[in-house]
Amino acid sequence: MTQPETPQIYLVTPPEIELSRFPAELRRVLDGAEIACLRLSLATRDEDRLMRAADAVREVAHAADVALVIDTHVVLAERLGLDGVHLLDGGRGVRAARKTLGPDAIVGCHCGQSRHEGMSAGEAGADYVTFGPVGGALGDGAHAETELFQWWSEVIEVPVVAEGGLDPENIATLAPFADFFAVGEEIWNDDDPLAALKRLQAAMIPG
Question: I need a surface site. Which of 46, 117, 125, 131 has the fewest CB within 10 A?
Fold first, then answer.
């Protein structure tokens, strides 16, 4: 993913998906909005379920010319011909993932609220870092503050993604500093995911 001038959407799947229904729902969202990248982020550790989900989601994503990465599973990313991997442990696995997947793969990682982790990931060759959550009552209650994104955008060239507990208010606040917003359950829990996404996108545009 290249660093855009204005924030773009980095779409994240729900933690549970029904293969009989989700691909069509995903197709509607990808057809109706500009998506920079898609992340398969399932709660299951069952390899067979992950592989079947990845096959179904990859077909939809690549038909829409959207890159697909998968949480954590470097080996599955390589085996299934996905576009990369999203690591959840800061920069510690970036070099190993890059060695396995090659120079053209997308390798990104979640760095919580840690400037140090983000810098370590960037130095290890991550294509992007995510900080979060930025809102809501997630995890231990700690949030990635606006000042972190502002500092990062001014000092570091590696693209930065805001995720976790997104709403129109915090999106509007972070839009000047974030390169991407990782949108997931914020829209999939809505009766109309595409409409929910468009409401969030509208908040990225200075009003």
Answer: 46
